[in-house]
Amino acid sequence: MRIIVSTFLLGLVAAFCLTLPVLASDSSVDVSDEITNKYEYNYNGIDITTDVEKTEDELKRIYQSVIEQTNIQNGEFSISPLRDDPGNTTVIETPPNYRTYTNKTLNLTIDATIGYFLKYIPTKVTDKFFFNFVGASLTDFASVDETYVGSWISSHWSSYHQQRRYEATLIYYHDDNYSRIKSIEVHDVTHLY
Fold it and tell me: What are the record keywords, sorted (predicted)?
């Protein structure tokens, strides 16, 4: 019986893994022609990743925009995130959104996987999945910490492109009060506007 159940589960996982690319290819969005570039910078000790090459002035603009929004989030000064374009600066098009991701499901999956495979290593901890799972859960052998993220859409005038450019900005923070920036990701979304 144990072999039948293991074979069934293995077949189910294989079927899911084999059909997922087929299901994904049926989506209505054709991304086959898009080329995704990745540019990595370090500005004032903060890692910035973008999909469009940036100049030093553009990196400074991104950095100042993020610092400004972080200060607004922490109540250092108060201005409306949605405002008229005061000229050559960044305009926040959508209000900033701050979220904490606990990664509980991911950690549960990691613990279950460890619990399952601990039964098969040469020096078994126990033969019971449940006890291995509880042991992996209690020790936090391989856990993913909480993730603190801020995001918004902003726009700015690009002299190089001679048009208004729209960017999705993701900021990863070290803590849950969203005050210490870990890294920044900027994705050009002008084609969506």
Answer: Signal
